[in-house]
């Protein structure tokens, strides 16, 4: 058995893994796991990842979870251009720095934005108070500013003159609030120009394909009561 | 200028960096006292605009984030290969752990210091139900740590000690220092802790953990400084974010 990737393109780390594998011509079998239908909570998937999260990778009898670990594994196992994760020690350290920073910063805020703005009210049928939503959006704003000031600065990409794993992980996060209807690039010309560069580097078609699902998040039909009940505690744990 | 490390030995990620560097990497220690609010000073903000420790500085190269610092140090300096081995799968296991650690260990195990020491210093109080929720989250995370990551191996990523073990142990030590018996009833994890500490050496562990091990005593004797007003806003925000 070759490489298998368990993904749901609704999930931002899954989109990063998907784009990376496709862009670099890495052959894989896609194993779709539909989160909004609770497929990640099945016994079958628990065999792959007992933590019941996507993305997950299987390569023969080696199983791996966590998007950053998966991206780095693919980078090392397959021949991919150096700029994704440079050999140069300092350049690479800056990619590692971003990948460590984003977990509790951009990732957290983009996820909360999607849930508070769309997934709770529309999909789960649970209203979110305007105060809560405002606080979430304010935190997102602070994080976007950090992304621009501390990481992008005046460079073409987050860690230097070329695209790297950092940019891929960042853009797939930012498309979460975009999917929720937030104009994250408005009034941020630097970030907007960066987005164009990342899209161009990835390829417009692949970028569009990977983001089709999230851009339709607002039109998801409401969850049925059983699914909602199953998902609720896990969602609450994930977005705190 | 050689290698400079900006650290506060109350901070868990700083412990990990300190202990790792003490294994034969020459560096200048630049102490940043968080309780005194030195991280929000102008000088330190020039080093790290995010106002967090640890930070590495080498000439004009500046690097934040403990995981990135540890990887950089292990690649740049002659350190034993087992910390960050080049074997594809073992290294992947280390990164898998570090990703999960950022989500499930880092935020959770740092909370007791805030509820027991830092919040009271600011005259703030964390509600009992949040403390209980945090305790439950720690238990859940310990269970995963034992079942999914440690399993029946000697260390988290295999039979040898790696950066993953160092990062994990340092987070766990903080609540332990504050009186949480995290290892009680968890013989496998307790044995793992014993192995990691034995590997690091009692002396180095003692030295690195000194400040955190005496924190309750210092707090009881009112020896800790009250954080300066400049640090209040970020500290209160951190306290409010405790789920
Ligand atoms: N740190 C992990 C995060 C994985 C994660 O939280 N995945 C989410 C989707 S974005 C998930 O599977 N959630 C389902 C659940 O927790 O019930 C990574 O980067 O891979
Ligand atoms: N993910 C970072 C975390 C750094 C961090 O949160 N440092 C804390 C001390 S443990 C800090 O400097 N806090 C000061 C503040 O946020 O105001 C790492 O691993 O280096």
Automatic annotation (TrEMBL), chain A:
InterPro entries: Glutathione-S-Trfase_C-like, Glutathione-S-Trfase_C_sf, Glutathione_S-Trfase, Glutathione_S-Trfase_N, GST_C, GST_C_Theta, GST_N_Theta, GST_Theta. The keyword Cytoplasm applies. Its main location: cytoplasm. Residues 1-82 form the GST N-terminal domain. It catalyses: RX + glutathione = an S-substituted glutathione + a halide anion + H(+). GO terms for biological process: glutathione metabolic process. It is found in: Cytoplasm. Its EC number is 2.5.1.18. One of its GO terms (cellular component) is cytoplasm. Keywords: Cytoplasm, Transferase. Homodimer. Belongs to the GST superfamily. Theta family. This is glutathione transferase. It comes from Carlito syrichta.
From TrEMBL, chain B:
Residues 1-81 form the GST N-terminal domain. Residues 87-223 form the GST C-terminal domain. PROSITE patterns: GST_CTER, GST_NTER. The keyword Cell wall biogenesis/degradation does not apply. Transmembrane segments: none annotated. It is found in: Cytoplasm, Cytosol. It holds the Pfam family GST_N. One of its GO terms (cellular component) is cytosol. InterPro entries: Glutathione-S-Trfase_C-like (IPR010987), Glutathione-S-Trfase_C_sf (IPR036282), Glutathione_S-Trfase (IPR040079), Glutathione_S-Trfase_N (IPR004045), GST_C (IPR004046), GST_C_Theta (IPR040077), GST_N_Theta (IPR040075), GST_Theta (IPR051369). This is glutathione transferase.
């Amino acid at each position: 058995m070759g490489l298998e990737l368990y993904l749901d393109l609704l999930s931002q780390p899954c989109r990063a893994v998907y784009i990376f594998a496709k862009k670099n011509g890495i052959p894989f079998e896609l194993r779709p796991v539909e989160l909004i239908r609770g497929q990640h909570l099945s016994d079958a998937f628990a065999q792959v990842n007992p933590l019941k999260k996507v993305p997950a990778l299987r390569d023969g009898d080696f199983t791996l979870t966590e998007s950053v670990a998966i991206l780095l594994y693919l980078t090392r196992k397959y021949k991919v251009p150096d700029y994704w994760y440079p050999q140069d020690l300092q350049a690479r350290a800056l990619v590692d720095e971003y990948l460590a920073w984003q977990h509790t910063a951009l990732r957290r805020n983009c996820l909360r934005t999607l849930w508070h703005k769309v997934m709770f009210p529309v999909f789960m049928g649970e209203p979110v108070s305007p105060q809560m939503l405002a606080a979430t959006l304010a935190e997102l704003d602070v994080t976007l500013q950090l992304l621009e000031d501390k990481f992008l600065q005046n460079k073409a990409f987050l860690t230097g003159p070329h695209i790297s794993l950092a940019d891929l992980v960042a853009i797939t996060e930012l498309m979460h609030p975009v999917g929720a209807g937030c104009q994250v690039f408005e009034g941020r010309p630097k970030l907007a120009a960066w987005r164009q560069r990342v899209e161009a580097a990835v390829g417009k078609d692949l970028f569009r394909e990977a983001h089709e699902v999230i851009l339709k998040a607002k039109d998801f039909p409401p969850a049925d009561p059983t699914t909602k009940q199953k998902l609720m505690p896990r969602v609450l744990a994930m977005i705190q | 200028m050689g290698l400079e490390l900006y650290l506060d030995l109350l901070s868990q990620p700083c412990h990990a960096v300190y202990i790792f560097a003490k294994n034969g990497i020459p560096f200048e220690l630049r102490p940043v006292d968080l309780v005194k609010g030195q991280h929000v000073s102008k000088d330190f903000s020039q080093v790290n605009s995010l106002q967090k420790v640890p930070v590495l500085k080498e000439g004009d190269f500046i690097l934040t984030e403990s995981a990135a610092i540890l990887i950089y140090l292990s690649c740049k300096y002659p350190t034993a290969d087992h910390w960050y081995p080049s074997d594809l799968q073992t290294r992947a296991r280390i990164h898998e752990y570090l990703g999960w650690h950022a989500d499930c260990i880092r935020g959770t195990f740092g909370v007791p210091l805030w509820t027991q020491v830092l919040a009271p210093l600011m005259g703030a109080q964390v509600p009992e139900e949040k403390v209980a929720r945090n305790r439950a989250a720690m238990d859940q995370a310990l269970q995963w740590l034992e079942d999914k990551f440690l399993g029946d191996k000697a260390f988290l990523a295999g039979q040898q000690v790696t950066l993953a073990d160092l990062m994990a142990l340092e987070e766990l030590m903080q609540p332990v220092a504050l009186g949480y018996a995290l290892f009680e009833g968890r013989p496998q994890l307790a044995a793992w802790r014993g192995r990691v500490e034995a590997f690091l050496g009692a002396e180095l562990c003692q030295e690195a953990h000194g400040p955190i091990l005496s924190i309750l005593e210092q707090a009881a004797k009112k020896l800790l400084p009250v954080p300066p007003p400049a640090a209040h806003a970020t500290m209160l925000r951190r306290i409010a974010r405790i789920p």
